[in-house]
Amino acid sequence: MSNLVEIRDLYFAYGPRPILKNLSMDFPRGKLIAVMGGSGSGKTTVLRLIGGQIRPQKGQVSVAGEVVHQLDTDGLYRLRRKMGMLFQFGALFTDLSVFDNVAFPLREHTDLPEELIRDLVLMKLNTVGLRNAAKLKPGEISGGMARRVAVARATALDPELIMYDEPFAGLDPISMGVTANLIRNLNDALGSTSILVSHDVQECFAIADYVYFLSAGAIVAEGTPAEMRVSEDPYVKQFVNAAPDGPVPFHYPGKSLADDLGLGVHK
Amino acid sequence: MSTTRTHSARSLIANFLATIGLNIREGIASLGFATRSFFNLLGVTFGAMKRPSLISEQIHFIGNYSLVIIAVSGLFVGMVLGLQGYYTLNQYGAEQKLGQVVALALTRELGPVVTALLFAGRAGTSLTAQIGLMKAGEQLSAMEMMAINPIQRVLAPRFWAGVIAMPVLALVFSAVGVLGGYLVGVQLIGVDEGAFWSQMQAGVDVRDDVLNGVIKSIIFGIGVTFTALFQGYMAQPTPEDVSRATTRTVVISSLLIWGLDFMMTALMFNK
Description:
The complex is a heterodimer of chains A (267) and B (271).
Chain A: E1 3-14, E2 17-28, E3 32-36, H1 43-50, E4 58-63, E5 66-67, H2 73-80, E6 83-86, H3 98-109, H4 114-127, H5 143-154, E7 161-165, H6 173-190, E8 193-198, H7 201-207, E9 210-215, E10 218-223, H8 225-229, H9 234-240, H10 257-260
Parallel strand pairs in A: 3-8, 3-9, 6-7, 7-8
Antiparallel strand pairs in A: 1-2, 1-4, 4-5, 9-10
Helix pairs in contact in A: 3-4, 3-5, 4-5, 5-6, 6-7
Chain B: H1 2-43, H2 45-49, H3 52-91, H4 98-136, H5 139-145, H6 150-189, H7 193-203, H8 206-234, H9 239-268
């Protein structure tokens, strides 16, 4: 099978509010796919559905040939061992050192001797440039460094699938570039499949093989970064050029200002 | 006009009844959910017990850090019991019974109850805040995505640590309390030392008094630790709700302790 992850006719709603509507996506093995879109477009929900943290109301997500929402708890945990996930702000365990954070999945899932775990952790930390920060606590490192530690932890077990949820949020330009390179290099070095959820256009276009644009829970455009750069799609144009108004309106939908001010002017 | 008033009065009553009904239904649903969560927690006990180091780590965190406040409180409660007991017993010329009174009050009631209340305030709030903040920082979600069950890895060791630590702390409270009673009654007021200890030895039964006190504190340990963990786990990942959950831990635990204490006292000491 060429696709590691397949999403078919997916519908998901929180109560009566639909988040994803008839979504179909493919994530081929070995590729780095970016899922882009504004805040509230449903990007993170896609990741949560792939990870089995929530269940769809209709349609299905399959990972490595297994339909995620049909798995029992043991099956889901078995599948998750093939996944690594980077949360938006790292989600490091604040009571553990940088070293112990990276060692955590190794200690939980393997019976490796402590000497070998030490070497593996130091190699992982070396990959993200933080070998010398191994003894520090998460509170003693910057946001960008925390993100890199989280990358090292997410890749500790060399997963087949790595998911990144807004890895560039709140980072300075240097940290952003470092993180972007790291994501691309790790994908190639581990031969894994990466799903990058972000709204940072330049970084995503620089490293992704393919891009999906989501808006209001549906795909509005897709293609390679080069195709997206020259796309005439109004949503893509607005997003790529960071235009304040366009298909995504500046104002939250509802009554007009005239109505609210009681001026008797109707829309 | 009067018809409109009757209608609005009727709808007011209907709304009032609907609100009561909704609250009762929500209360029952919450209770059911809490019970199911409790059994979920018990269900992962076997897995948690495979790693006793995690439990001992938490016993240190929960128990050791509560030790000072519990020992100091026990000393003062014992000293006050010594004073008050002496004033009352002295009126009947029975001050030699002071040792028995202090020991019975501590082992049967004050030891388990006050320890549980202090435990809820010291360790319970800390557990709720810790779990709530782990949830807010997506640490529990991260664990789930690493194929690690946070209930087994994080909650269960803390739960069993609380259940184990509570009776030990209650015994420390009672022992230090007896010492406080001795210091005030014998050393300060001058009650006969031999009578103090011999009356205590004769009047306190290990099975009926001490063991029942230990059973009480184990039940309190289950109630308080589960309440603290449940509130933290169910808190919305916002600073406001984590702080509200911490408050709820103290309020619910305190009410639970008093309610359970009344029921257990009625069952245990009904001679």
